Amino acid sequence: MKTRQHLLMIPLICMFATFFLAGQKCEALESTSAPDTKWELDDIDNGEEATPRPTANASDKKPQKKPAKADATKKPLRTKYHFVMRRNTKETISLDSTVLKSPIKWSVSNRKIVRIISKSNKKCKVRLLKNGKATIKAKAKNATLQLKITVKSGTAFTKAWCKQWVKDYITKDMSSKDKLIAASSFITASGIFRYGSTSKPEDVISKKMGTCVSGGKLLVEMCKAMGFKAKLRFAAKDKMSRYPAFIRFASQHHNVEVKIKGKKYYIDGTPGLGVVYLCTSKKTVYSRNMLDAIPW
Q: How many CB atoms lie within 10 A of CB 266?
């Protein structure tokens, strides 16, 4: 499990597209060397909802000024965010400088829990000192952002992070199968995580890397947060006819088994894999290869 040859795949040229994540916003788009990671608030938009404007009447004696063109695509400025972060790590929160007007003043409600290490008009680097809650404020000329930070450690951190992930990415109109594909895609093909040696799901989250085992453990917790029964399983001896034709498992590969109304489904949680599949014990229900070539 310490090598990158955890999964051998037959190259198949496919469209590189991110399933479910397109159009959705993620606060952790980029990562740096662990334990210092970067969180981006990239879904901030400045403006107000478009409202009907009066049009000039030809019978009016006095010409009216031409109304400004309304931009129906604009949405109200989002000012509240919630992050779940791991104790004894450092995080960098980055702001969209094209929307927020400088200068930006940073402050934190509880310095015993979260301490600001460095700050600028674009980002704020913090250290998570102890478990608890604190609010970071970024005050600009045109808005004040409130960033609610929940600091936890161990399995409590993993469960809280998964619970927040469900709030951010899962909607009521999604089917059970769609939810499983979204969770697997987030770990394997979102670009946030990469393959690397970690053993615990909390390490996968904070270090942004993992193996089929540690990433699979995180995927299990994500599935449980969505209300499914899930477990990590040894998959290397499975009949490959149930899986997409373009993949082959290495001798120690693991994936995740999820039960939906008594029926078993299989998904992958290998970070940075670039492949998403949803299979039953007999066939592939959904699959996508996000890579044109295999990087290892």
A: 22
pLDDT at 59 over 70: no
In the numeric block, the tokens 């000024």 are attached to: 65
Terminal C-alpha separation, the chain: 14
Burial of 71 by CB count in 10 Å (0-12 exposed, 13-18 middle, 19+ buried)? exposed
- As a dihedral over the C-alpha atoms of residue 238, residue 240, residue 246, residue 247, rounded to 10 degrees, the angle is 20
Number of domains in the chain: 2
Q: How confident is the model at residue 96 (pLDDT cuts 50, 70, 90)?
A: confident
**188-232 pLDDT tens trace:** 999 999 999 999 999 999 999 999 999 999 999 999 999 999 999
pTM: 0.72
Mean pLDDT of the chain: 79
pLDDT for 172 equals: 93
CATH of the domain at 255: 3.10.620.30
**Parent domain of 269:** 174-289
Asked whether 207 and 238 are in contact (CB, 8 A), the reply is no
Quote the crossing angle between the two packed helices 176-188 and 154-169, to the nearest 10°. 120
Q: Is 260 in contact with 176 (CB distance < 8 Å)?
A: yes
CA–CA distance, 24 with 39 (Å, rounded to integer):
15
What is the rounded CA–CA span in Å between residue 53 and residue 34? 51
Mean pLDDT of 272-291: 92
